[in-house]
Design goal:
The termini are far apart. The chain is built from 24 helices and 26 strands. It folds into 4 domains: 133 residues, Nucleotidyltransferase, domain 5; 124 residues, Nucleotidyltransferase, domain 5 (2-Layer Sandwich); 215 residues, ATPase, nucleotide binding domain (Nucleotidyltransferase, domain 5, 2-Layer Sandwich), CATH 3.30.420; 88 residues, no CATH class. Strands 1, 2, 3, 4 and 5 form a 5-stranded mixed sheet that branches. Strands 8-7-6-9-10 form a 5-stranded mixed sheet, sandwiched between helices. A 5-stranded mixed sheet has the order 13-12-11-14-15. Helix 18 packs across helix 19. By secondary structure, the chain is α/β, with parallel strands linked by helices.
């Protein structure tokens, strides 16, 4: 019996190895391909070479080693292996396109979601094959990928008795996902879950669970959030038509298909063999090009592990002398029975709330650092209650003023009464220069965000911030430590500082870094080398994503929770080549700065004769009743972050906490303290050109003027800075001046995907 020659394709991704065996027949119209065997979907857990060799050995046993004509590769980890073996490799973009056109030639668009990657492809037939019209890949963020879903499923179910003791990691993950999907399918009312970053999503899901939302509704909402995230980040304003092909490991998830159909309003089809589309495409490309060769399972097995994963090492971490200062305790209150005058400072952050009481000279009498847990008022209450229960007689405490800062500063102002509400950049600068006036650069890593501040003579000269990605923040380090079974407080830094050969890890998304760490662990890497490498990766991530091309001065202060970790301080010094100082009360420096700023604000007003009485509402605020509600931000219909807003009301005043863009951080809805200067400027602008222009409303067709030539000015870029000059000049020159309407989302959507100001200019043009 004659056995046909077979072709073997491997798609080695970040999470799994997908493979298939097929035969090919040449005809007048080209080659046709027949899939004869598709091995089961297998996660490699970092051990790509042994698993790849094992799968090929199964193929050899089933079909005969002598009948294998070609073995070809694609995928994230396929290129290095193919290169070592000297066989064919195809890039994923083309492999997916070739494979899907073979399986489902009627598709117009392809949604591909794998372990770490998501992509959109738009294709069309051209008679001989297909044309790849457009494509968009996810950036260095795993939000909405298979690993993102895996993490959430593991977080919910990993400690359940029926899953905890399953020794086989592949089977364990399959069982967890099966339960995860089954519970999600039972949902009748999916919750609103933000899917912009795995760290933020976890916080969101915990908050929903604490509110009593069912697991099924949270899971269903999570899948809808993934679909909305894909639409807003990859599809954007592209016009799709059905049917849409859905491929990749995530396409096996029934909830995912349902969520995409609901979000896009189009037919979504999961083709047969949807996990091996890339492997099939690699085979097709190899046949078309006449490339590729046979390799054996033993050849793959003989490859070194470094062929699939490589990580160079670097020098051990060490802090410069005197740079790392251990955290100091507060001094406590004077023991005399006399009145004690204090200034009170609150820093309400996304993950932690800080409270301090300082003397007029800046001595720290008391400080408290507690989790915010999405409930800023409850966190403030806990901090105050802890102070009241510390044994001090509250009657001895005379509060001269209160300052609030942080993302929840307006909520704190509403609840406790503040004399000064200041943003966290100003507060941190104030607190820092109080201790070290010579500081000109502040690095701050918070719980879920990161900031860079450049000071000149104590004043703000530059500021940058990252609130969208949590890679390298305190929450990420804490999660990673927990995964590795170590304590974040002291054990992490002790292990990292003991490393002799730290790994050079890629700085990127939390999901990717965690996946790399687990892979290296399974390959025998030491925890201390990985932790030291992680500290360095955090620094590179911060410098590349936050500081970017910002200037780094001579005296650098590192602040935020991670600054308490000596290995991260040492990593900063190693990377930038400069000493990095830490302050004794750096974990509450924002609250200290808020209190000091309030002190100086009050004193400056008193210096000009004002009589100042603090707005502090007293210690009894812990018993105060307030109205609290929760809503989803829908200010911008183009935004799919699904930010949860906490709305607080005390009497007629209202404050909002939450939202990733910072829209609500400085906003009190009823009790506004400042006029809308932007609107005032706009009114003055149009008053000064009254009678010299016309506005062309959206959708209106401009009639031709027989007497004058018409010239249009788009209302964008520096229009409000120099527009008055140009309108007057052009009108005097005899032109009929037409101005575009106010910007709307429909106008913005007309522009191509470039930076927003230029996109708007093109839309209006």
């Amino acid at each position: 019996m004659t056995v046909e020659k077979i072709l073997v394709g491997f798609d080695i991704g970040s999470v799994s190895i997908n493979s298939l065996v097929c035969t090919t027949t040449k005809g007048e119209r080209g080659s046709t391909f027949k899939i004869v065997w598709e091995p089961t979907y297998r996660r490699h857990f970092g051990k790509t070479i042994p698993l790849c060799s094992k799968i090929l050995a199964e193929v050899e046993s089933r079909f005969g080693k002598e009948n294998i004509e070609k073995v070809v590769f694609t995928g994230t980890h396929g290129e290095t292996i193919a290169k070592e073996l000297g066989t064919f490799f195809e890039v994923e973009t083309l492999a997916l396109s070739y494979g899907l056109f073979e399986l489902m030639p009627s598709s117009h668009a392809i949604i591909s979601i794998g372990g770490h990657d998501s992509a959109l492809f738009i294709v069309s037939p051209d008679g001989k094959g297909f044309v790849l019209e457009d494509f968009k890949l996810n950036e260095a963020c795993a939000a909405g990928t298979g690993s993102f879903i895996d993490q959430q499923a593991e977080r919910i179910y990993s400690d359940f008795p029926e899953f905890k003791d399953i020794p086989d990691p592949q089977l364990r993950m399959e069982k967890i996902l099966s339960r995860f999907i089954a519970d999600g399918k039972s949902s009748s009312r999916p919750a609103n879950v933000a899917c912009r970053c795995t760290v933020f999503t976890k916080s969101d899901m915990i908050h929903l669970q604490n509110k009593g939302i069912s697991i099924g509704d949270i899971i269903a909402g999570l899948h809808e959030g993934v679909a909305k995230n894909f639409k807003s980040t990859l599809i954007t304003n592209r016009k799709l038509r059905g049917p849409i092909a859905f491929v990749g490991g995530y396409a096996s998830n029934e909830l995912a298909k349902k969520a995409f159909e609901k979000t896009l309003g189009l037919e979504v089809v999961v083709p047969s063999h949807h996990t091996v589309v890339g492997a099939l495409g690699a085979i097709i490309s190899a046949v078309k090009s006449g490339l590729g060769k046979t390799v054996s399972s033993s050849e793959i097995a003989n490859l070194s592990a470094s062929s699939a994963f490589s990580a160079s090492t670097t020098s051990p971490l060490a802090c410069s002398k005197g740079s790392f200062v251990e955290r100091e305790e507060a001094t406590g209150f004077p023991s005399s029975k006399e009145k004690i005058t204090v200034y009170l400072g609150f820093d309400i952050g996304s993950t932690t709330t800080k409270m301090v009481l300082i003397s007029p000279s800046g001595e720290i009498y008391y400080k408290r650092y507690i989790p915010t847990e999405g409930q800023p008022v409850e966190a403030i209450k806990k901090a105050i209650k802890h102070f009241l229960e510390s044994g001090i007689d509250r009657k001895r405490i005379d509060v001269l003023g209160v300052g609030t800062t942080g993302s929840g500063r307006e909520v704190a102002n509403l609840f406790v009464g503040a004399d000064d509400v200041v943003n966290e950049v100003t507060a941190h600068a104030k607190g820092t220069t109080f201790y070290r006036p010579e500081v000109d650069t502040i690095f701050e890593l918070g719980g879920q965000d990161a900031k860079y501040t450049l000071l000149k003579d104590g004043f703000l000269a530059d500021f940058r911030m990252n609130k969208v990605c949590a890679a390298g923040t305190g929450s990420f380090l804490e999660e990673t430590a927990k995964k590795l079974g170590i304590k974040i407080n002291n054990e992490y830094e002790n292990l990292a500082m003991s490393s002799k050969t730290p790994f050079k890890l890629a700085e990127r998304c939390t999901v990717y870094m965690e996946s790399d760490l687990m892979s290296f662990l399974q390959m025998g890497a030491k925890r201390e080398d990985l932790l030291a490498g992680l500290s360095r990766a955090v620094v590179h991530n911060y410098l590349n994503r936050v500081v970017q091309d910002g200037k780094i001065g001579k005296v650098i202060s590192f602040q935020g929770g991670p600054s308490l970790n000596k290995s991260v301080v040492a990593a900063f010094e190693a990377v930038i080549g400069k000493p990095v100082i830490t302050l004794p009360h750096r974990e509450v420096i924002g609250a200290i700065g808020a209190a000091l700023h309030a002190r100086d604000e009050i004193k400056s007003r008193e210096a000009v004769g004002e009589k100042i009485k603090t707005k502090f509402k007293g210690w009894d605020v812990v018993e105060k009743k307030f109205v609290h509600s929760e809503e989803i931000c829908r200010r911008n219909p183009q935004c799919h972050n699904q930010c949860k807003l906490q709305v607080y009301k005390v009497g007629e005043d209202e404050a909002i906490y939450g939202g990733e863009c910072g829209m609500y951080e400085s906003r009190v809805i009823v009790a506004k303290r400042t006029p809308d200067f932007s609107r005032i400027r706009q009114n003055l602008f149009f008053k000064s050109i009254e009678g010299k222009y016309r506005i062309l409303n959206e959708g209106e067709v401009l009639p031709k003027s027989s007497s004058k030539p018409t010239i249009g000015i788009p209302r964008t870029l520096n229009f409000f800075q120099i527009g008055i000059f140009w309108v007057h000049l052009l009108e005097e020159m005899g032109f009929d001046v037409v101005i575009s309407p106010e910007t709307s989302n429909s106008i913005v959507d007309r522009g191509i995907e470039i930076i927003r100001p230029k996109r708007l200019l093109l839309s209006l043009s």
